[in-house]
């Protein structure tokens, strides 16, 4: 302890009790933040159709659209009506359902596509064109002047039909910034409803997103929509940082299904947003319907819900380590930022393992309606940990150990058998209740 | 087009050809960035043991430790030797393997634990104590003075044994900032090797992380380690932003397994980091071993690799939409920020579906060694899309359609059968090669 004189006593600092700010809420410095005022464009029926396993027939599309509407998404985006004949008919059918969610379809920035789209009955059309040098060279081969001219033509046509119109670049984070700002300024001036930023390859990182959206926000007067792929695991926080910077709408898919490993998952984004804007999220979206919505889509595309999915992953509310279980039992907020009840889920204390602690075991003892002192709970916990060292335990294993231990401590031990003695009298101290069952 | 005069011609801006900066690399403004100089502490054998399904026997722990070492993680963190008798023996056994990765164990900030830990043969000890008001109230019940005193005692004891020592708070993002900085300054001054920031409940967002690490960096002179839970889907980008701000070490688990839905997944972080620091990542970590490592752990804890896992999810390199397939065939970078070959993986163009395009089909035609003109490829694509509208397609379905079409266009059509005519001569134009097989 030779360095002891360098130790500085630490004094508790106490925050004033009157401060009621949500520490996970919008940062007051982000004066353009839409964290508490965002909208969802669910693209399970467009981007999601591009998922490797996806094939939705008309009936399934309608079922998914109704479930998204019941959850409360603001918009539902559908595959382009020019993708195939059935895609067009499905688009028309979903428009006729009379859902509360607005219906969009997603087309190339081309008059041929726009003319078909406006006839389907959609509330809005999302147009997209690649602006990165990669896409200009290897996809459509057009220059920025051509892109701007096509955009203006399509936007004015769709607007003339009284239909909402969004213009998005593709692969925005690998596009030239000046090119991007130029075209967004142009389309904003002619009255586009939304401009879209798309991280088509999933390369963007959160602070990069924040900077681009903040810059774009100073150039356009319309809403900003964002579309983030998840190749490098950043889709959800990129969406969050975009909202912080002033974007208003986020594209999601149920379970994030889409091209490659997909985009922002609806459930994961809800996990992020309920922490930042609990009242807004809980009042606007039917969070209890999330699990059924995910099961519906998972079954339709034949995947399992990932074990580590936010909210609905099988262990998302399971607490295991002894030290965690102790605190959770005292106050769930200790180790939970999400309340499982907000999503119609339950928390679970995993006590059948060698990392268990006596607080978790004591709770189990209580659940079993048994009476053990704290010291006895500690003793039986040691027995459980010992077996847990040898093999994986089940709840039944733990319950058996607890019940055996309880029987042992509440029943007087048999004395070592004395020669020629009758031991019957020596177990007479058994509780009356137990006797009455014999 | 009445607003046409408002349209501003867009001119191409061309970046100087000499600029060779990686646009996804470290931001030059982050002068403390460790994006190109980070280290990994893999905690699959500690945090991962807290995953609901985890039970690793000695043999499995050793197998995982060897695989982590072969992958090249800098540190391997093990469950506390006081968690159970077998945990202590396993810790000793892994220390004796002579791995290149340094071995750590993770204990409570308590001399009883520290005394056991230093006897196991580990290279370093990670101590942790809850500093949030939640944990101080509901877990250990100690105040900040007590925490600081215990920390100093444990740190000096472990250092006296010539063993690396890390001090971490728990639930750092819900701890009082002044309390945190005070205790980190204290432990830094007495020569702790690393301080740890832990988002124990998964509440932090990326810009918040950046700010806290930047602030902490100005207070301590030692390395900063970060531990991020994934409850709100932000673990990977939080780790990235921490490195941007000057943190040096990130805790990972294979597939992210851990309490609840886990922490930063090793593979997902590799996806993020290879984009930002390709040379560093490729020279330091054996990325080709990632898939086998994930399969090993997935089987051990009886989970499936999530369908949407970065890099190893089954569709992570599958391209489906016609517009994507076209560009990918011309240049994979168009729709890929990750190169599958870096991870020993392959890309796959999904052409057997109604969203397919003629470029993808033309490639398939070439693969089948058939000769069709571009127009013929477009025609057969329409046939494929038509069947894809009715049901899910397999590769065999598409191949059959292509082969039938090819046979049709390269074989003269049979004329409607004329009465009493022998048609045998009319198909005599069949290729000689085919005839020779008859």
Automatic annotation (TrEMBL), chains A, B:
CDD domains: DRE_TIM_HCS
GO MF, any single term: metal ion binding
Domain spans labelled Pyruvate carboxyltransferase: 38-291
Catalytic activity field: acetyl-CoA + 2-oxoglutarate + H2O = (2R)-homocitrate + CoA + H(+)
Pathway: Amino-acid biosynthesis; L-lysine biosynthesis via AAA pathway; L-alpha-aminoadipate from 2-oxoglutarate: step 1/5
Cofactor(s) the protein needs: Mn(2+); Mg(2+)
Disordered: annotated segments: 1-26, 409-438
Compositional bias per record (Polar residues), positions renumbered to this chain: 10-21
InterPro entries given in the database record: 2-IPM_HCS-like, AIPM/Hcit_synth_CS, Aldolase_TIM, DRE_TIM_HCS_fun_bact, Homocitrate_synth, LeuA/HCS_post-cat, PYR_CT
The keyword Repeat appears for this protein: no
Keywords assigned: Amino-acid biosynthesis, Lysine biosynthesis, Magnesium, Manganese, Metal-binding, Transferase
Record-level GO cellular component terms: mitochondrion
EC number: 2.3.3.14
Keyword Manganese: yes
Entries under Pfam families matching the protein: HCS_D2, HMGL-like
Stretches of the chain forming a coiled coil according to its record: none
Domain of life assignment: Eukaryota
Gene Ontology biological process terms, A to Z: lysine biosynthetic process via aminoadipic acid
Its job: Catalyzes the aldol-type condensation of 2-oxoglutarate with acetyl-CoA to yield homocitrate. Carries out the first step of the alpha-aminoadipate (AAA) lysine biosynthesis pathway.
Family: Belongs to the alpha-IPM synthase/homocitrate synthase family. Homocitrate synthase LYS20/LYS21 subfamily.
Name of this chain's protein: homocitrate synthase
Organism: Zygosaccharomyces rouxii
Lineage, opening ranks: Eukaryota, Fungi, Dikarya, Ascomycota, Saccharomycotina
